[in-house]
Design goal:
Largest sheet: 9 strands, parallel
Radius of gyration: 17 Å
Oligomer: single chain
Shape: globular
Strand order of the largest sheet: 5-4-3-2-1-9-8-7-6
Length: 257
Amino acid sequence: MGKPFLREALTNTLQDGKKIFVPYIMAGDGGTHILEERLHFLKECGATAVELGIPFSDPVADGPTVQKAGIRSLEMGTTLLSLFDTLLSFKHNRPLPIVMMTYVNPILSFGVKTFAKTCAQAGVDGVIIPDLPMEEESLISNELQANEIAFIRLAALTSPEHRLRKIARKSEGFLYAVSVTGTTGVQTDYDQHVKTYLQQLKSFSSVPVLAGFGISSSEQAKMLSRYCDGVVVGSKIVDFFHEGKVNEIRQLIQQSS
């Protein structure tokens, strides 16, 4: 499931012999008015899609960098509704597929049916919900499926093989392979277990497998991408945008694929 824009973008990148690079940005960090410009810039840099974080007061999967970005966004008045309005304003000029990363509570507060329908109207291609366990996902996944929104599952390093197989089998869009234990943030090294885990997920999954969490350099991105289809990079991209280091963003993306 999921909209063709996301499927085609992922497929085309791989068919071109490149690795997928999905940058994470916090919606509203710097203001929602710059979102369209940032998406066009990331497209020019070579991004395949973008993961768009929704600011939330209790972000359990986020490390310090992303938490600070969320606070900055909330202080600027970003809400789910204002973000949907922004996405609608350039829906027909959207350069990249958008995968929204949010938590269960904001979706329940918004209303599950309304959330899924508004995602579809605003051109959102996929949704990641890190605090929604597989056993309870039908609470939201059915409505996403009805609106052709890809529900992107996360696989954890600590999960047993039978669970990884089940997650991989259900995955839509891409399978997000969490490559560290804990929250997002900069990681200095990856052990052999991570490489075996990524190869295992690749053998289980019919959709691309992307490694994420802790990737902060093109060297790390290229190393992990040897064992899967590409990477999701968050904290480093968030930092670079906040510090105005756009050339560093361009280099990170271009040198990772």
